[in-house]
Amino acid sequence: MRHRMWNLGVDPVVIPNGLSSDDFLPPDRVALSKLRHHLAGRLVLTKVARWDPDKRWLLAVDTTAELKRRGLRPLLIARGGVEAHGAEVMSRAAASGLRLVERFPPGCRDMNLVDGLVNLGDVDMVNLRCVLGSDSRRMLFRASAAVLANSGHEPFGLVGLEAMAAGGLACVGGTGEDYAIPGWNALVLQTSDPGELVRILERLRRNRLEERAIRRRAQATARRYLWREVVRRHMLSLLPAGAALAHAW
Fold first, then answer.
1. Residue 46: in which H helix or E strand, if any?
2. Could you tell me if 147 and 169 are in contact, meaning their C-beta atoms sit under 8 angstroms apart?
3. Is 146 left (phi over 0), alpha (psi -120 to 50) or beta?
4. How far is CA 200 from CA 93, 145, 151, 176, 182, in A?
5. DSSP code for 121
6. Which element (helix H / strand E) includes 127?
7. Shortest CA distance to 76 belongs to which of 25, 56, 31?
8. What is the DSSP letter of 28?
9. What is the pTM of this model?
10. Contacts of 60 (CB under 8 A, 6+ apart)
């Protein structure tokens, strides 16, 4: 994006997105424990994004279908938007042999969300039709085997960083997210092959210590993107007497 703006005669200042301290609040322990109990034995993937082709929803569906073919009992928890591409995603899921349900938990908050995800049986994909509160997003991110935040084009990828702050395992695309280091604090997909993520998840299921280490490093990385840190590193030096302000900050 910066190079595109240079071509327009604009010399931009690049400032990353940031997180609030609330993004690091632990989810409700009782609700999280209940959610994990109900989803025990499932390989849970969560994706929260607009229904947009660039968000790689079809790849998420294809990956879920491949995990199912390998007998790994995946469950894709999807929260999309109002865009027309959602219908194409649902059609792809049905054509791939996935069993799909829609759930309308009131408010999508903590226990309401948990209650909306019980008795799923052999369901492979849940389409959540409600607005997810920040507390419920953190709970889903923490409980998931991976949070699918990969896009075809992503200037920054805030959802991936939010997942990392919540203690989740963020899966982003190879689109230049500065905070993501492949296999160290995040999963970074390089191709459109569903087998790529499947192989990564299979490896992590065999090595829980590696998975937990990635989650710990991810949360530590996310703390570098608290707005306080973003302002100190990227903005104060642009102001008059910024160096002194940055030191005082």
1. strand 43-48
2. yes
3. beta
4. 22, 11, 18, 20, 11
5. T
6. strand 125-128
7. 56
8. P
9. 0.91
10. 45, 47, 76, 78, 148
Supply 226's token pair.
């608290």
Structure tokens at 215: 């989650």
What is the predicted pLDDT for the residue at 248? 52
Using CA of residue 188, residue 193, residue 199, residue 205, what is the dihedral sign?
positive
Write down the residue that tokens 């400032």 correspond to: 15
Q: Look up residue 154 and give its amino acid.
A: E
User: Angle CA(117)–CA(122)–CA(126) in degrees, nearest 5?
Assistant: 40
Distance CA(35)–CA(190), nearest Å, equals 31
Domains of the chain: 21-248 (3.40.50.2000)
Q: Which two tokens stand for residue 101?
A: 């349900």
Alpha carbons 124 and 128: distance in angstroms, whole number: 13
* Confidence at residue 21, expressed as pLDDT on a 0 to 100 scale: 96
Per run of 10 residues, the mean pLDDT along the chain (length 249 residues) is 87 87 95 95 97 96 98 97 97 98 81 90 95 92 97 82 97 86 95 96 96 98 94 79 52
Alpha helices in 44-175 (DSSP H): 57-69, 85-95, 110-115, 134-143, 158-165
Tokens standing for residue 234:
């990227």
Indicate the SS3 state at residue 229.
Answer: helix
Question: b/e for 169-196, b at 16 or more Cβ within 10 A?
Answer: bbbbbebebebbeeeebbbbbeeeebeb
The pLDDT value recorded for residue 107 is: 66
Locus of tokens 């993107």 = 225
